[in-house]
């Protein structure tokens, strides 16, 4: 049995960011992952993810404002370019855009409001609903590069990193957690579980968790028309349409951003079924792809709909789409964070490391149920 001060399960974005934070403070930490680095089985893979401050919910605008300098800290520590601010567009019904403006005003962040025709004149490859807001602070995070950078930097700072190491069982032994893998058994007073869709399987028997919804989204990349190939035509976007998924401030009917080398990614919501992440078929739904093409044909005249290349990505959410960042006994839960979490990676790493070191979660929406 090997004793370690901190053990992190899950070397995706959040787990590797937590390990980086702990290792940066000189703590003894081990990071284990059931798959390889930047694998495609979970929620952290891919070329890019949206970065934005333009939330309808002040809690997440506040968190994004914290994240911006944290990204720059990570870049300075690793000498890697991981966040690019090339702008964020939100459009849709007036109430949603008004809420975004209020959130940005709270932080004195710049933005421009315009109508649909004004926005189309500026970004002719896109069509818009009547109310549009542009935030120059938005942009994109380089997802795969970020995860690989965090794993490598954690290792450089002294963390033990074990990839392709599935966890077989987790049990409690007084104030310690005991974690068994195929090769060894770990004993730790501080276990961080940042395992996305596998969290309930790993610790649902010892920690009371909220309902987790595990399903697979299906975005697709489209190529711009030749006369609109410049990246400046394609800032990231959220469409707050009337056909959203129930009106939650954290939901939108579509999202997208430009991924260098792949094209413009567009994701729309459809009726997704709960899945078992260990028995996922990665099959592309032709029905959803057809619906996606119809959406793109209407809202993106500058994209070639026949160029679509679809992929799948695991999503794990609570019904409210809030995060769970909290501790019970020796176990800190850092999940689910998919859907809209990647932009907060270095900050969630800080928050989770603080919990692992004995801190308390004072944000009710991120707390575990009693």
UniProtKB/TrEMBL annotation:
<dbReference type="InterPro" id="IPR036188">
    <property type="entry name" value="FAD/NAD-bd_sf"/>
</dbReference>
<dbReference type="Pfam" id="PF01266">
    <property type="entry name" value="DAO"/>
</dbReference>
<keyword id="KW-0285">Flavoprotein</keyword>
<feature type="domain" description="FAD dependent oxidoreductase">
    <location>
        <begin position="5"/>
        <end position="355"/>
    </location>
</feature>
<protein>
    <submittedName>
        <fullName>Unannotated protein</fullName>
    </submittedName>
</protein>
<dbReference type="GO" id="GO:0050660">
    <property type="term" value="F:flavin adenine dinucleotide binding"/>
</dbReference>
<dbReference type="GO" id="GO:0008115">
    <property type="term" value="F:sarcosine oxidase activity"/>
</dbReference>
<dbReference type="InterPro" id="IPR045170">
    <property type="entry name" value="MTOX"/>
</dbReference>
<keyword id="KW-0274">FAD</keyword>
<dbReference type="InterPro" id="IPR006076">
    <property type="entry name" value="FAD-dep_OxRdtase"/>
</dbReference>
<keyword id="KW-0560">Oxidoreductase</keyword>
